[in-house]
Amino acid sequence: xxVNRRVGKQSCVALIxxxxxxxxxxxxxxxxxxxxxxxxxxxxxxxxSAGEIVDKQINNWFRKHNVTPGLSSKSGKIYYSAKAVxxxxxxxxxxxxxxxxxxxxxxxxxxxxxIFDKVGRVRTSTDSSTSxxxxxxxxxxxxxxxxxxQYESFWEKVKAxxxxxxxxxxxxxxxxxxxxxxxxxxxxKELFYEASVTTxxxxxxxxxxxxxxxxxxxxxxxxxxxxxGVIMMYxxxxxxxxxxxxxxxxxxxxxxxVGRSVKSYTDRSKEQLKNMMGLRIVFDEDSRxxxxxxxxxxxxxxxxxxxxxxxxxxxAFKKADTRALEDLSEFINGxxxxxxxxxxxxxVREYLAISCEDGxxxxxxxxxxxxxxxxSGQLEIRSSAKAAxxxxxxxxxxxxxxxxxxxxxxxxxxxxxxxxAMQVKxxxxxxxxxxxxxxxxxxITVMSSEELSDPEEDF
Length: 459
Fold this sequence. Notes:
By secondary structure, the chain is α+β, with helices and mostly antiparallel strands. 37% of the residues lie in helices and 33% in strands. It folds into two domains: 50-126 and 202-341 and 378-445, no CATH class; 130-179 and 188-199 and 349-371, no CATH class.
């Protein structure tokens, strides 16, 4: 009996141990399954596109500054946003140029939206037509149409023989004759037709003086495709500033806070400068306005000739400076004209298809549905402004992970620069030297940047 008791105790202990280990294993299995499920759920979520990434960044910026796009903010400013796709991937030699072009496209779209909302016109027209064939013979066809005379029959045989010989010759030449096979079109009797097309034409034309980008974003998807997003701002004070510059008056605009030196604004890392595009408004140590224009470009030289490469780099710096001058010119005295046309509608047809097969008449019901969805647009920006008071204050370059180089130039307009230009002009007058004022002309058809200032607080 003692032996049996001892054996019973050992059996109980063994059973408890087995149950404990089983429960522990089940808990561990449950934990593993939960982790696996979480990973599967994460993997099942669709990856955000580059455009969705930029949309999120733009919306976060609006929430941060407590503004609603298209409506006046607490300080009387109005904000718009737009996006554009970078056409070339980062490993392509055209990438740097394409980034700059995408930025300008996005900025111009935001400008066009603003101008249309303020002064635009819209015209619409809708054209509809309907027809129904309910004649007594609508579903009938003459069976004699499939009968051929002797001459027609002979001619069809001649064509068939020639076609067979030609097909054989094509095969011997390594050409598939099926690629050139055609079938006669069926005769159709239209039974029902309905179409409705609406055309909408949007036009606008106005000044874009005083409009500036306040933030740029770049969204990059996993496949390497990128989208540039721009937030643009209109401010009555900036329009007055542009009007003062356009008419040669000393600006009266002052910042609410004491600013910094121009060098402190441009003394940034290459990574930060790469994300700065377009014009920015900042203030100097005397709270006077400073216009900083960030131009970028690239070059697509391939080869080992270092002298040729340097020539391409020099030209790229010149073009980057031209981009910066364009932004300054458009801010001071830019005009935009836009036109877009959309066509939307649908067409529905029901018909009877009639054909001859082996001399017999064959009739089949047929239908077609077509959706019309078209968009076309034109955008033109022209500007002309004096370049007096502007100067190039920084040059920089940045290479991405694929070795593609972004060339950048920062050009600044300052009141001191304007006064210096005026002094030189007066000195030249004293020397009886006639000088024509330098002008900049532009004719344009159509990551997150660092915030150098807070547009809602600084002015």
